[in-house]
Design brief:
Layout lengths: L1 H11 L9 H9 L4 E3 L2 E3 L2 E6 L6 H4 L17 H10 L3 E5 L10 H21 L4 E5 L6 H13 L5 E4 L2 E2 L2 E2 L6 H10 L3 E3 L19 H20 L2 H4 L5 E3 H4 L6 H10 L11 H7 L1 E4 L5 H11 L4 E2 L12 H5 L6 H15 L5
Parallel strand pairs: 3-4, 4-5, 5-6, 6-9, 9-10, 10-11, 11-12
Antiparallel strand pairs: 1-2, 7-8
Helix pairs in contact: 1-2, 6-7
C-alpha cells in the first residue's frame, strides 16, 4: 500500500495535498478494504480517532495559550481517508483531546470549542458516509459544557462528547459536574473518555525516563481511576441512562475487575455511594475500546465485560497496532459478536445508519 500511496501523491502534482485525477481516484477507491464476517459485509466504526484544527491558533494569539502546538500530521485531510480505506475502517468518530482549554477563561474556552465543533461539522458534512463527530466541551464551566453539548448535538449533528479523566485536578464525579452529565443523559449522547498521562494522579517526574511511562502506564491508570470514580461516587446511579466509553480497553479496570468488585464489601473505609457492583455497570453503562493488542488480552476483555460492551478503537492517526484483524481472527468470538465489536455496538450508540 505504501507504493500506491506514493503513486497517488505523485499523481496529484501538488505538495501537501492530493488532487486526484479520475484514474487516481479510481485506484484509491479500489484500495478500500471491505470487511466480511461469514458471508456478511460488516460495517466498521472506530471510536478512538484523534484530530486537530490548526486554525484555532488564530484564536489563541496574545493569550497564555499562544504557544500551544498543533501537529500538522493530525489535521484532517486526504491521507485520513486513504488510511481508513487501507485498514478497512468505514466510519471514524472524530474527537479532539489534550483538553488544554480546560484552563481557559469562559470566553476563550467558548471560542475554542466553537472553532473545534464547527470544523468537525464541516468535515463531517463533506464526508457524511465516513465520519461522525464528538464535541469536547469546556468542563471547567459545567453549565457552559452542557450548553455546548446541546448545541453540538442538536444544531451541528454531533453524536456525543469526548472528555478527559479529570478537569484541572477535579474528579468528574464531583457533583458540580452534574449539569454536564445530566445533559448527556437527556440527549442520549455517549461520552468517550480519553486520558492525559495520569497527570492528575502521579507526582511530577514519576514517569520521567525511558519507556514513555506516562502513556504506557499513566493512560490506562487514569482511565481506570475515572471509571471507578463514576461508579463508587454514585454518578452512574444518578444518571442511569448515561453511556460512557473508556479508552485503551478500559484501562486496568477489566484486568483487575475482582479487586474493584469486592472493594465496597471488604474495605471498611471504602464508603461507596454506588448501589451496584462494578461488573453490573460494565453490563449496561460502561463500554471499553478494543486497544489491548493481543488475543489473550481481547479474550480476557470479552470474558470480563462481554462483546456487547467492547467497541473498535484505533487511536488514529497514532501508530499503535490495529486490532481489527485481532477481532476478526478471534476463535473465541461468534460471528455475531465480531460484527458487534467491529461496528455494530457503535452504530447503535452513535446512531449511524450504514
Amino acid at each position: 500500500m505504501a507504493d500506491r500511496r506514493d503513486f497517488l501523491k505523485a499523481a496529484s502534482g501538488a505538495a501537501g495535498a492530493i488532487f486526484l485525477s479520475p484514474i487516481a481516484r479510481s485506484l484509491a477507491q479500489s484500495a478500500r478494504r471491505e470487511v466480511y464476517i461469514g458471508s456478511r459485509r460488516a460495517t466498521t466504526v472506530d471510536i478512538h480517532a484523534h484530530c486537530v484544527f490548526p486554525e484555532v491558533a488564530e484564536v489563541l494569539q496574545e493569550t497564555e495559550f499562544a504557544d500551544v502546538g498543533f501537529a500538522a500530521w493530525q489535521a484532517l485531510g486526504p491521507d485520513r481517508l486513504e488510511d481508513m480505506n487501507e485498514r478497512g475502517i468505514d466510519y471514524q468518530a472524530l474527537s479532539i483531546n489534550r483538553y488544554w482549554w480546560y484552563g481557559a477563561d469562559r470566553d476563550l474556552a467558548a471560542e475554542v470549542v466553537r472553532v473545534h465543533d464547527e470544523g468537525l461539522a464541516a468535515w463531517v458534512e463533506e464526508h457524511p458516509d465516513r465520519f461522525v463527530a464528538l464535541t469536547s466541551p469546556a468542563l471547567q464551566f459545567p453549565d457552559l459544557a452542557a450548553e455546548q453539548l446541546e448545541y453540538a448535538v442538536n444544531e451541528l449533528g454531533h453524536r456525543g462528547a469526548s472528555v478527559g479523566g479529570s478537569c484541572n485536578g477535579e474528579n468528574l464525579s464531583d457533583p458540580r459536574f452534574d449539569p454536564f452529565w445530566a445533559k448527556a443523559e437527556e440527549l442520549g449522547a455517549p461520552v468517550f473518555m480519553h486520558p492525559s498521562n495520569a497527570a492528575n494522579l502521579i507526582r511530577e517526574g514519576a514517569f520521567d525516563g525511558r519507556g514513555d511511562l506516562g502513556n504506557i502506564i499513566g493512560n490506562p491508570l487514569e482511565t481506570a481511576h475515572f471509571l471507578a470514580r463514576l461508579m463508587f461516587d454514585g454518578t452512574l446511579d444518578k444518571f442511569p441512562g448515561l453511556k460512557v466509553v473508556g479508552a485503551h480497553g478500559g484501562g486496568y479496570l477489566p484486568s483487575y475487575l475482582m479487586r474493584f468488585e469486592v472493594a465496597c464489601e471488604v474495605r471498611g473505609n471504602a464508603d461507596c455511594a454506588s448501589t451496584r457492583l462494578p461488573s453490573e455497570y460494565l453490563m449496561d453503562q460502561v463500554l471499553v475500546d478494543s486497544m489491548v493488542f493481543s488475543h489473550e488480552g481481547l479474550r480476557h476483555l470479552a470474558a470480563e465485560v462481554g462483546a456487547s460492551q467492547i467497541v473498535y478503537g484505533t487511536d488514529a492517526p497514532f501508530n499503535w497496532p490495529d486490532t481489527l484483524d485481532l477481532i476478526l481472527e478471534a476463535d473465541y468470538l461468534s460471528d455475531e459478536e465480531k460484527i458487534a465489536i467491529v461496528g455494530g455496538n457503535l452504530m447503535e450508540l452513535l446512531r449511524i445508519e450504514a
